Amino acid sequence: MGQTVGGLIRVVSEPDRNKGKTNLKSTGYKWPDWHPKLLAFKSSDNLKAAWQLINTMVPYFGLWYLMIRSVQSGGPYVLTLILTLPAAAFMVRLFILFHDCVHGSFFSNRRLNNFFGHFLGVLVFTPFEDWRFAHLRHHVTYANLDARGFGDIWTMTLAEYENGSEKKRLKYRLYRNPVVMIGLGAIFMFLLRNRLPTRKVTGKERMSVLFTNLVIIILTLVAIRFIGWQTYLLVLLPVLWLAGAAGIWLFYVQHQFPGGYWARKNEWEPMRAAMEGCSFYSLPTVLRWFSSNIGYHHIHHLNPRIPNYNLKKCYDAIPELQEKASLTFFRSLSCVRLKVWDDDQQKMVAFP
Fold first, then answer.
1. What is the DSSP letter of 150?
2. DSSP states of 153-181 as a string?
3. Domain span at residue 314?
4. Would you say residue 114 has pLDDT above 90?
5. How far is the CA of 320 from the CAs of 29, 33, 204, 262, 276, in angstroms?
6. Contact 29, 273 (CB under 8 A)
7. Which pTM was predicted?
8. Per-residue pLDDT for 334 more than 70?
9. Domain total in the chain
10. pLDDT digits (tens, 9 = 90+) for 70-87
11. At residue 154, does pLDDT exceed 50?
């Protein structure tokens, strides 16, 4: 016998989180009548995927060539840094294509997704299998207060923060500081943290980390041999830092925004986690292109198998998705003040 909860029918069974995959038949909820319409947009298009690889990698490598020549010519380094801006934007786009491969949605063929997932993973300094393990766990546990810690931003409740030790509160304040989380976090995450496997992973994920690290070392040695280590670092570090900071910011505002949704395990609802716990980040057309439509994040969490090139079509075709309030770029800047989840007010708030 079911009970109506938030527009959904809650039943006895719990979500199936085995291997990080969502089994809709055992989620414990009856999805709304319009939810099956999303299935029409999850078909992958190999030609579109191939074109996205071409229109992203060709200019990305072209900018790398120009930056290398700029440094080697001895001209003002500021010219190289100007070229860093579009290069970092293309790197963000590369990461979203990598992200689609993680979900098996970019190509229609599993082997192609795995191959380009590993290939793009090297370019964005992220091991494919290891990141897939954490990210799929994120999808089936996001907004669940009893399942935090995999592929998400460290978020404490107000009660946890107030009752925590002075050391823990200080650590959390440092972590949530934008300079640390977004600024320093970009270099820490992509140069250091991604060089180690996630906790609780299997041999496959560990081998993915070793493979990615080995290829990065080989490519670094080749680059040093032909252009020198100074030129390599002067080009790589600003690109990686800017792209990493932009990527962390995107992920942050997708889940840390005014209102939001968090719940305990026995009250957690997948529909609310997607529609209320994920933002609709409405970006200008150019930024939406570079971020490969990932701003339609509520749709992505409703069905992660929808490739990036179908997200906007899905949004335009299903009126219920358009009821989600948008988060504009300028409004998103205020999200940095949100630090803890207040159970009483049911929303993200600043530090007390």
1. S
2. ---EEHHHHHHS-HHHHHHHHHHHSHIII
3. 3-349
4. yes
5. 18, 10, 40, 22, 13
6. no
7. 0.90
8. yes
9. 1
10. 999 999 999 999 999 999
11. yes
- Residue 141: helix, strand or coil by DSSP? helix
Q: What is the greatest pairwise CA distance in the chain?
A: 74
Quote the CA–CA distance of 283 and 294 in Å, as a whole number.
Answer: 10
Cβ atoms within 10 A of the Cβ of 68, count? Answer: 20
List of residues 6+ apart from 19 with CB closer than 8 A = 136
Is there a contact between 269 and 6 (Cβ–Cβ < 8 Å)? yes
Q: What are phi and psi of 280, to 5 degrees?
A: -105, 100
**What are 321's two structure tokens?**
């998705």
Tokens 């500081």 correspond to what residue? 177
Query: Distances from the Cα of 256 to the Cαs of 17, 51, 117, 214, 323, in angstroms?
Result: 23, 33, 27, 35, 19
Q: In this model, does residue 22 exceed pLDDT 60?
A: no
d(CA 228, CA 283) in angstroms, rounded, equals 38
Region for residue 183 given its phi and psi (left: phi exceeds 0; alpha: psi -120 to 50; beta: otherwise) = alpha
CA gap 24, 42 in Å, rounded: 15
